[in-house]
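FORM 7B: Structural annotation worksheet

SECTION A. Query
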Amino acid sequence: MKSRLWMTAMLAGVILLGACGNDADSESRDHGSHEEADEEVRSLEVDLEVPGTAKAGEKESFTAHVTSNEEDVTDADKVRFEMLDADGNSLDMIEAEHSENGLYTIGYTFEEGGEYSVISHVDAYQLHTMPEKQITVE
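SECTION B. Predicted structure
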């Protein structure tokens, strides 16, 4: 008899606790309304412009055209260009400044001939992208 009373009390407790979580307003209080989120979903695209070939000892320009939702990004958090040798070893990391219309440009001189990779590391709107292109230095 005692165990039956105990089981009934436990069942009543579980039902009572379960009912407390079914408050009609609890969803909007606890999780917020989706209508409150007016933030636009952002994309981050980078068109990395790298010449196909260059001459050793001559300065070349490298440009990243940064856009988000088809609009120029003039206030990226950070834009850096990384130069890598044919073995994937990082040679240099250079921070770029915005020049105009979403363009971030640096000048760089490769001292020796060979195959290299250029990666633009772009951070904006809490997103990160890093397109890579190849260049042959003669």
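SECTION C. Observations
Residues 23 and 108 are 63 Å apart (CA to CA). The chain has a mean pLDDT of 85.

SECTION D. Sign-off
Analyst initials: ____
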